[in-house]
Amino acid sequence: MIKVENIVKQFNKLKAVDGVSLEIKKGEIVCLIGPSGSGKSTVLRCINGLEKPESGQIYIQDELLDEKNKESYKNLRSLMGFVFQHFNLFPNMTVLENLTLAPIQVMNKSKEEAQEIACKYLERVGLLDKKDEYPNKLSGGQKQRVAIARSLCMNPQIMLFDEPTSALDPEMVIEVLEVMQELANEGMTMVVVTHEMGFARTVADRVIFLEDGKIVEENNAEEFFKHP
Ligand code: ADP
Ligand code: ADP
Questions:
Q1: Ligand 2 within 6 A of 189 CB?
Q2: Subcellular location, in the record's words (predicted)?
């Protein structure tokens, strides 16, 4: 589903990602872990085209992710949903408007159709009753669940999560992890940058540990957490 071949991403002199290769199969849940600044987020952002690596290749469903091939690039990027640490909801739009914006503008859905899809996903994350609220009326955990629902409205084949619970109060972490666990159970392909070791241990098929922009360990979750 995703193949990353020897990517390097530099910011000025700093090699944030220094020769990372990885492969993720359909339906696999992979957690990227490692110290702050080790390049986890940058790897994820390269996968969905938010950052452009200086060298190396990324394939999505066996097709090269290449900015120059505009149509293919757009299609491949549309296969991937991205959930940010800081939600990135539009504050001046209601929950429902946040969810229907892209389906209407990008997927050319009618307003009614977009709302129907949005309500379906809001229900799934347990927030249908908040559809007419503005984001600032929601808790952090609710905002993140809205952000996940918004991504799902675009019918992604792959979900990328960048520290989705790091900005949340502890009591709200669990409600977001539960939604992610459900997605995993349903067979979604997921790449998750996280500090939640409990989630990595119980939900991930594979854990990849980065340090200084390099993969230093990669194993199934059971093996990974066996040793200290
Ligand atoms: P992690 O997700 O593991 O915390 P990041 O991928 O966010 O690590 O960052 C890796 C390194 O690259 C860090 O040193 C970070 O400061 C740097 N970095 C990330 N994004 C940028 C950017 N846009 N400009 C400059 N430096 C960046
Ligand atoms: P989110 O939490 O929403 O995923 P981040 O806070 O990780 O977003 O990063 C937000 C932006 O800041 C990204 O575009 C990232 O590349 C950039 N960034 C991260 N570290 C640095 C840095 N050291 N210098 C400049 N920009 C950075």
A1: no
A2: Cell membrane
- The pTM of this model reads 0.93
Q: Establish whether residue 85 lines the binding site of ligand 2, counting it when its CB lies within 6 angstroms of any ligand atom.
A: yes
How many whole angstroms from 169 Cα to the centroid of ligand 2? 21
CA distances from 85 to 89, 160, 192 (A): 11, 11, 11
The C-alpha atoms of residue 145 and residue 180 are separated, in whole angstroms, by 9
Complex ipTM > 0.85: no
Cα 197 to Cα 207: distance, rounded to the nearest angstrom: 10
Query: Quick check: CB of 41 below 6 Å from ligand 1?
Result: yes
The predicted model gives 36-60 an average pLDDT of 97
pLDDT at 152: 97
What is the distance, to the nearest Å, from the Cα of residue 22 to the centroid of all Cα atoms in its chain?
Answer: 16
Paired tokens of 119: 């309500």
Ligand nearest to the CA of 16: 1
Q: Please, which contacts does 11-19 make with residues 24 or more away whose CB atoms are closer than 8 Å?
A: 15/213, 16/42, 16/213, 17/42, 17/43, 17/46, 17/53, 17/213, 18/212, 18/213, 18/214, 19/56, 19/213, 19/214
Q: How far apart are CA 226 and CA 96, in angstroms?
A: 44
Helices 140-152 and 170-185, axial angle in degrees (round to 10): 20
